[in-house]
Fold this protein.
Amino acid sequence: MNVNKSWSKSVAGIALGIALLSPCGAHAMNVDEEFEFASGLIELGFADLANRVVAEVVRLYPNERDRATRIEGEILVAQRRFADAEELVNQMPEGHPQRYALQLQIARGHFRAGNNDEAQRLYEAFFDVYRDRVPTEPDLLRFYQDAAFQFGQMMERLGNRAAAAEAYQRALDAGLDDPMAERRLRVDLARLYLRLGREASGAERDRLLDKVYELSERVQWGGYDLWFGHSIGLMANALLARGDEAGAQQLIERYMRDLNRIDRLLREQNHPPSQSPVASVRFLLGELHEKRVHELRRQGAPEGEVLQAVQAALTEFFTVFGQFGLSDWGPEASTRGRALVELLRTEYGREVNVDFGEAGGQAAQAQFSMADDLFRQRNFERAIEEYLRILTSFPEGEPSLRALANLLLSYAHLENDLHVKMMAEYLAERFAGETIAANALLMASRIYVDRRDEDMFSFLFDAFFAGFPQHERAPQLMFEMARRRENAGDVAGAMETFERIIETHPRDRFALRARMALANAAHEQGDFARAAELFGAYLEDATPGHSRIRAQFMLADSLQRQRLYPQAIRAYGQVIQRLSGENPPDNARPEDVERNARLAERALFFVGVCFSRMTQPEAQVDDFRRRGIASFQQFLSRHPESSLAPTAMRHMGALQMALGQADAASQTFTELAEHYPDSEEGRSALFALVSSAFEIGEPDIARDAFRRMIESPDDFSPEEFTRVGQLMLDNGLYEDVIPAYERVVATTEDQRLVQLALFGLGTAYIQQGDHERAVENVSRLLRDFPNTAFFFDAQFKLAESNLELERFADANTALAEILRLSQDNNVIQRAQFELGRLQMARGDRRQALASFQRIALLQDPANATLRPLIEDSFLKSMELALELELFSEVAENVEQYEEMFPRGQHMTQVRRLRDEARSRAR
């Protein structure tokens, strides 16, 4: 509670406005939105989640480091990492309001955590700075006053009334701008001095009670209002504390009519009855009558006289309890009144029944206040007992709902998860839409976030969403829940939650972000059609800024990946168009200018890429290529220093080559090498030409370029020949591979290149059917490099070629080496299959059958790598069994194959073999 609204708002401007407007985000995000998102998470108590958001922003945007400091401090306080938060404070400039704001926030965090000594230390350290003076700067002065008042409230809650009075006095001595706030503070301070005076004795008691009088008189000088009424009650109580009962009663009787008038005005203006000054004076009258009861009994007065005094006391106490139950005097009035009722029952045999009528709600609140005190003291077990006891008498109404909310939180603190689930479901169903119930579920979920109990956290959030889908925080929390599910690998659950945000809050800003999240997820999963649809839907409602430009770019990318090149070109054009001209709206924020410029640059590049890949209608292909060249030329003129420039030049040269513009292409690749010598494309411009030719489906151009290499071999390094040879090998140009790799073997001692070349030669010769040369090169590879990484693949090629050459012993030796040395089951089973083929070639059909059966029957078909091999082994087994007239084995293998592979690739052949076996078995 602030001393007054006007200067508390100004303090908020100092303490919060300086740093809390920092942006935060995750991936190509709106930074301000992400910071706002993080602040909202802290406010809700989800500090861990907020920390992830802030950390991601700082990672992606290091220049936001300073703007994130204050929010990081808040996060540390919320996580109770107070030492780390204080370290942040120490890094801030001395005397800066932001430093003090975070320091006192740490103090409040300590207080909430029960570290009362630490909280007091930090507040006192702040006040030590101004021990002999009061700040003179207006903003800092208001901050000082607010801090003093907060500290006073904190000390009062802890029962340290002396420290609370000192803090209130500081605020008062600083001079408040608002006269009404000053009057209220004087009353609060006088109330403290009264309580301290009652507990003191002698001269100290008189000093404190004199302060009550002094403060009350100052209030009375200010006029006739609520605080005037409270000052009368305080002065009367001070007289009673001095033992002047007659003086106290006379003062009350003198002003009772005025006090009742103030009470009536308050009610007419709909002020809570608990604010009425009548509560304190009626309680005091009850005390006076109570004293008379005990005095009469001590004197042995007649029963009628005692009962009359009891009745008078009960009237006052139950009036306070019934009409002013929420005031400071209500609970004590209830206790005093019930004690007198018990006295009547036990000593005089009289029963008293009290009906509060319309004041029942206040009575209920007064009853619950005792349980609330236990709850605030974190005595959760006792609080549960009290709430359950009182709820049997007061099951309905707002006080009861608050009690149920605190019951839920008490069970959560005690880790009674079963009762938490029960209470959460009850609150969500019975009080759906009620703010108190919704907030209770949110506060309970915070407890489980701190415990990192994902199951309970998810349960409570699901209950919250079920009961309070229209809560103002629901979209934000659903969005965070979706993020958590996505990070945990529950992509389906995340997507469902994003969809739910859009369904329940279609116009909320988090619905827009949910559309973007769904679109990004579809894009990452390769569902580019769905991604294009979602990015398009996002753009319908997107506001100007980087997020809109990024969505437009991703829409174009999604279309391009579907090979919808004309549509992609139009979408990329929108990116470029929206960022053209002076001061485009999407560049309103300085931090967006550079990010948008990068997207515009890439958009222009991909326009050229799209044109280069368009093949329909066939009659227009050359026109598409010319337009692609024009796009790349435009790109290179605008962005010559771009990291994409070498690639653009490579594409341009390839298109020129495809158009038969050999001279222009040659010039382009020459410039590529000259202008970008440090780029991959520049270091091997001819390789870039070959690669580009393959990309656009022009292998003849690749061959022509390679022949130019062969004609001038000294102009190219072994590394370049190796790379081009691999490119030829990958594209099936085996005849061209051989001279490239032979050049490598002949000109370099680089073992890595030689191994690649020898293995590539073996592969190329096998593909050409020259198994003698294949054996020669693979054998050299294994002889010169016995530890080569190609060892097992080379042995397989050696076995394959020797088998074709009918050198069965040599093929067997190669397979035996694999089986002896490999520890990879996939490799071993492949060798077993090749061994079966070898045995078939040698005529050892029964041994071959055994080899294939071991694979078919003993390996796991769930192994995706082995699954095709197992199918092939079944087919070989059936063919061999049929040849050997083992018809029953054919039938068994068919049955097993159909069971394992109901949609197997060999199903037609398998059934033909089954039918043939049946026919021959008759």
The longest helix spans residues 245-268. Confidence is low (pLDDT under 50) at residues 1-29, 356-360. The chain has 46 helices and no strands. The radius of gyration is 43 Å.
